[in-house]
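Two proteins were folded this term; both appear here.
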Amino acid sequence: MRSLWLRCLLVAVALFSAPALSIVNIEDMRMDETKPGWMLSSTLSLSGKRGNLEEDKLSLNGGTQWISDDLKVRNLLLFTVANDRAEGETYSEEYFAHLRHTRQVVNGIAWELFGQHQSEPLNQDYERQLIGSNARVRIETALVDGYGGAGLMYEERSVVPPLAEQIERNDWRLNFYLNSSYPLSDNAELAVNFYVQPAIEDFSDVRSVVNAGITSRLNRVFSLTLDVSYSNESEPLVGQAHDEWTYAMGLNFRF
């Protein structure tokens, strides 16, 4: 049986209470692309407390991937379902799904087609759907060791502010990204990601995100990670903030 990768997230805390992240860093969520066949990665988390406050938190996230024998075709599905309750009432709910088809055109260059759905019913009934396509290029230089991409996507977003009607925005956007890793030592690595998505009809309507993460390998099985992200949107939907900071720490293991 092929190895299964399981990622166990110990702590994931937002620095500020903020809107749904409009750019999801798919590069950091990709699975091993060097082995043909099926692969599964999944994490089920359950926590809670009883006493002065009754609270329950449940989340399921992960993905599945299929790669052809010649490694030239890849299909990837990523998903997240999360529900947080306190005193019997749900106060946070999140759903996410991302489907991506990748075809290797030549060595180092791939064409991708993708679709995505995000929703947070209790965050002003926020919803986001998109479809798009992009080129993905392997980059190996003195300054960059990773992947770059450029493409086009169509996006639909909506929110329902308090005491107001639904607000919708549909846009065609360009999508540019750069992902690179830098070794810090024999057992530690720094990964940096940039995303920029300007609207085609108005280039002043730009959203962007910067992500930096450090992974330290403790031994053959365990590794420790720390990630920090900052995102900015020049023209967010009504009731949504311009900026968002997040960080996460986790312990990863494989067998």
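Next, the second protein.
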Amino acid sequence: MQKLASAAKPAAGERKGRGETSDAASPSSGRNIDAARRKITHQQRMAALRFIKAAHEEALRYIAMTEEEVEEEYRRAGKLHVYDPDTEWQKRCARIGRMYPPPKFLAPELDEFTKLLEEDEHDYPIGLAGCVGIFL
């Protein structure tokens, strides 16, 4: 009789049967999460909460808007020529990141989003940027 390939013993750190991994190989093991929580300072935690709260509020506001309302927002700001629906989420996230800078580990792609924003916007407040101070 031939051995089945699935009966072979997995190498160290590889997946075991039924999707289980050893604690050392698992990036989401409880020990790793606890260690990450202990490394966050109070200031980082508060900055993260402010950013998340503002980003959530902006996401809800943007979802509720129609395409015409978004275009009208850009038209009032005099920036309709730079409106791009494909990058709008990233730009809104970058605006929130400017007002409420998160810890680097929370939003590592924020720098890329900010570059998008800087290409076509010269710090003119659109969206929640006009509400600075609400979440402080």
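The radius of gyration is 22 Å. The longest helix spans residues 42-64. These notes refer to the second protein only.
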